[in-house]
Amino acid sequence: MREVITRILQFDKLIDETEASLLGIEGLPDRYFRPFARIRAIPKQTLTALTSDIAGQIKTISEGDMTVLEFCSERLEQQHRERIIDKAELNQILQDVTTLFNEVQQADIDAELQTFILDGLESIRRGIYEFRIRGPVRLKETIGEIVGSLYVNYKTVAAAGEDESLEKFNTLFNRLTTLVTFANTSVKLLSAVATPLLPG
Predict the structure, then answer these.
(1) Residue 97: pLDDT above 90?
(2) N or C: which end of the chain has fewer CB within 10 A?
């Protein structure tokens, strides 16, 4: 249930980001904003009745709305070109996160260090899944979350020295950071509306 709510909230945030980006384009006609009232209703209605099918909510978006969103996508693309995230590498990072998570759970290490690493791995896992909804910007937020956690847990991390689990986590984190550095923020609303948001 928490996973469902998180994805819905990410979708709601994506709607706001998309509209804000469009508002930043000078002279954009009002017709570009017509679908947003109906699109914005999707996450709100779904949160109100979590047992409802989000695919059914998405069906309220008309073919005309999707056409307008295509125009929006084209105009936003003209504003900034996106370098594509290497999805194969992202999937490999996700697999390595799962492997390391299991290792750290069984490791005989300081409890606070263990919690820091496990929380960081969970942040990466969640960020990669939500990347499908909001694109590279979600991965950048994930990096920010981990940096913030590192600041809070600095003494624990510093005391760990060359702990093997921590070094493996740092390697994964650096791989993610390198991957995201080469991608610019872009808007993913069109694909998010066109495909189911929730895992099968």
Answers:
(1) yes
(2) C
